[in-house]
Design brief:
heterodimer, A: mainly beta, six-stranded mixed β-sheet, four-stranded antiparallel β-sheet, 10 strands, globular, B: 111 residues, mainly beta
Chain lengths: 113, 111
């Protein structure tokens, strides 16, 4: 079946602009995660959605970052007033109920000039 | 203390060697455990789930030690293609069944 998809695959933007990244989870997956991965670094947790529960936003690095998800469908991650240190690959993952294994999307590579 | 901890490595081993990684987790209520593999500039992919009784998939063996709160991954007869970062993933057992990722262990298999 279809896996997790993300768009765009690459995004180049100028410092100070806002960007919106999209994630389409696997159908039926109630949980959705956003991670950031800087070059040569590990995964950095950003936010976790589980069904209709309040999201766990504890990983968002600043108030310039926000994410939305409607029900169990698409999620968008928005970064306002981008900074050069926001340059990274943003990965989305989704998993079924009960904490089973997650599948990852291919990521969005963000470059802030 | 981090919820899921791994030795970042790198582990440099020759082809054909056997190598093992451990991963410790802090929450004794953790319920599900997984190993993922991440190749350079790629997304992580599920390598194997870790069951209480241990499980084996070809050259790969995963073990769970609940008493000491760690999981392990053993790779026998290492291949050059095994070079990657191996991520330990734990369902930390909170109300939302959230999966928590370790920082990864980098493996380099040399000819």
């Amino acid at each position: 079946g279809a896996g997790v998809s993300q768009s765009p695959s690459n995004k180049v933007t100028e410092k100070g602009k806002d960007v919106e990244l999209r994630c389409d989870p696997i159908s039926g997956h109630t949980a959705l995660y956003w991670y950031r991965q800087r070059l040569g670094q590990g995964l950095e947790f950003l936010i976790y959605f589980q069904g209709n529960s309040a999201p766990d936003k504890s990983g968002l690095p600043s108030d310039r970052f926000s994410a939305e998800r409607t029900g169990e469908s698409v999620s968008t991650l928005t970064i306002q007033r981008t900074q050069q240190e926001d340059s990274a690959v943003y990965l989305c993952a989704s998993s079924p109920p009960s904490g089973r294994a997650a599948g990852f999307g291919p990521g969005t590579r963000l470059t802030v000039l | 203390r981090k919820e899921v901890e791994q030795d970042p490595g790198p582990f440099n081993v020759p082809e054909g060697a056997t190598v093992a990684f451990n991963c410790t987790y802090s929450n004794s209520a953790s319920q599900s455990f997984f190993w993922y593999r991440q190749d350079c500039r790629k997304e992580p992919k599920l390598l194997m789930s870790v069951y209480s009784s241990g499980n084996e998939d070809g050259r790969f063996t995963a073990q769970l030690n609940r008493a000491s709160q760690y999981i392990s991954l053993l790779i026998r007869d290492s291949k050059l293609s095994d070079s990657a970062t191996y991520l330990c993933v734990v369902n930390i057992g909170n109300a939302g069944n959230m999966l928590t990722f370790g920082g990864g262990t980098r493996l380099m298999v040399k000819p």
